[in-house]
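Tutorial sheet, problem 5. The three components below are modelled jointly, 812 residues in total.
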Amino acid sequence: MKDYFMSDVLVEQGGFLQGKEMKSRKIRINNPDNDRPINIFIGTAVILSIISIFMLNIDWIMLFSRVGELAGVFIELSQFNFTNFDLVAVAFMESVTVTLLATLYSLVGGLLMGAFMARNITPSKKLAGVLSSYNSFIRAVPTPIWVLLIIACLGFGPAPGIIGLSFHATAFFARAFSQAFEEVPQATIEALQATGANRIQIFFSAVLPASMTALIAWSAMRFEINFSESTILGMVGGGGIGYSIAASVTGYNFGRAGISILMVFVFAYCLEIMFTAIKRRMKA
Amino acid sequence: MSKPLIVEHLTKSYGPGSLAVDDVSFEVKQGEFVAIIGPSGAGKSTILRCINRMVEPSDGRILFEGNDISHVQGKKLRDARRRIGMIFQHYNLVYRLTVMQNVMHGRLGYMSTMDGILNRYKEEDKEKALKLLNKVGLLEYMYKRASELSGGQKQRVGIVRALMQEPSLLLCDEPIASLDPNSSKVIMDLIYELTKEWNISCIVNLHQVHVAKEYATRIIGIRQGKLVFDGPPSELTNVMIEEIYNTSMENLMINGEVRAVG
Amino acid sequence: MADKQKHLPLVDGGEKKMVTIAFFVMLALFTAATAYTQFNPFTILKEQSTFWNFITQDFLPPDIAKAKGLWSAMLQTLGMALAATFIASCLAFVFAFLGSGTTAPYPWLSKIIRAVGSFTRNIPALVWSFILVMAFGIGTSVGLIALTVETFGFLLRAFIETIDEVGSESLEALNACGADYFQKLAQCVIPAAIPGYISWFLYCIEVNIRSSTIVGMVGGGGVGLVLMIYIKSFKYHVAGAIILAIAAVVILVDLTTNWLRKRVLV
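Model answer (structure tokens):
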């Protein structure tokens, strides 16, 4: 606490204890030292955001004048067109399987890399540092860019999607998991070291069970992200339901675009409900 | 007003067949210090929360300062609540705010919406808060975040917040259940002295029988939602205690004190 | 007998059973998905040399000099991410009060708001941009709105959860003091929830920097569009430079948000 406050308090205290007039000064109730960082942050964020909005040069009048057309778009999208639905279904299945495989592969990769990256259990601090900066780089480049690069050299099909998504998701899991491992109390690890357990035993019998809740939460979160990413892939040149949406929209087949979007929504919504339920059960 | 609170046939049910409070009636005179005892889950907390309508009673009447408040809503309910202070087991402070900001919350019921939002508290109210903080020994903590205080200190903030409301009735829901014995004594002494000094009626939920006997001018015993005892501490015999807690005296004795483990 | 004693179960039976079931479900899904996609993980190893050749010969060295308009495009991408996150968080700030169980004045309204939120967040931003292009035509505004819409849904849920976590106990106390609805928001909910809000805001900035790059690739403008142009015209050295620039900016933003978390959220 700064002297400033202390002296303030004493002045007020002296004031009312001796019954002297002290109406000239207002008594402060907040502590500016507590509020300052947040106030500065919010102020700066608001100013930068408003500058950004102006910088983007958006024609707001045009935008608002066309809001009515948005309703028209939704009406067109909702007139579902089920001809050649099998093509949509195949594309959807491709997105789902790509999501699934990418999540499972990156789960394994992420666990392995996370174990080597976590500072409390890594066999080599140097290796941990190298892995950590490698993963920050991989994570910094958005997934669809990785997929585009892999498509450019491997050609089309589900494989570039799976590889590209796994690439990014592995880096994501590696960081998340290594943090979860690092949160395991040192005492737990030391207790097992004292019994003469080796690294692998310590990992499987102490670190992994202790961080299980966090691992499940991260995996669930990434599964949702992966599905959304795999949808996007089709729109930037990959396959799957995203391609079906993009192709239907550009081909003015709004009924099919509508059904494709609905499938994306329903699947993502079911995932959300499922994972929320799982998280709630784990907390209880 | 000699009887600021009259509770008539208070009943609360959560769904059919489960009565949390079953036809409880009692009166509290001005300046009385009433302790409600009973095993945990007996409905003590529900009774207390029905009085200021934090819980909606299913049946019965609550007369506060002569007005029936069992069905009032909106402004009238808030007007009644601002005259009823409440102290909680878990203190229920806004931990990111300073002690002073928390204490001043007690005045919100007396202010316009806008003044309350913009922290425009009256200077004389602030002075009063300083006096009360001084009294409970927290003056030097006034600009500390509530989260930085110990449990006993947090509860003292809770007491000052309740007293800032200028209540005629104080409801204390297990005020010392989360505190160590030393802090518990400080808190009970403070509640006792301040309510006496200001002639505030006080209802305290307790699960330590010996604390109830030490402070209360009257004790109410609750068992499975029913009122089974209402009288001065001197009439609370061991037989009566055994009936309230439905167990033998030996089970309630720890270190020579009667301490119902809730 | 003595041997069997050594295998005392360390975790309780129910949990062990769950783990076993989860493992077999994953295995089954893995097998089915692999069979469906015909994906052979060893293609990575087989095609590895092609990939690295492609990276080392086509992309490296990065040619940053030829990337015209890179930095102004980058600024636009950053601006879009910030603006979208800001607008979305302003909207979510208001609607979270109406949606959270602890502060909702009307339960029916809360249900509607939650439904809208789950609709907007479960459709990816890029899909939103396709829908919006149909109404507004191509332009920066579409990218901005698409990002805003998805972020709004996400932040709405995050803010509601924040209120639910910080709310009920201190709200009960303010209720008992006779505070009215807006006083309770200003004096209790907002001060308690602000750190949570800021933390989610920063998270969305991180996510939206990446998303706005992608939205840009399909016509939203910014650095994504510039990158797409160079990839489509096979100028991979320039594209490589742009990708490195994107990575650098994203890492910089992540470092900044991490620093802010430590400085602001005390």
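Marking note: The domain at 5-258 of chain B is CATH 3.40.50.300 (Rossmann fold). Full credit if you identified this.
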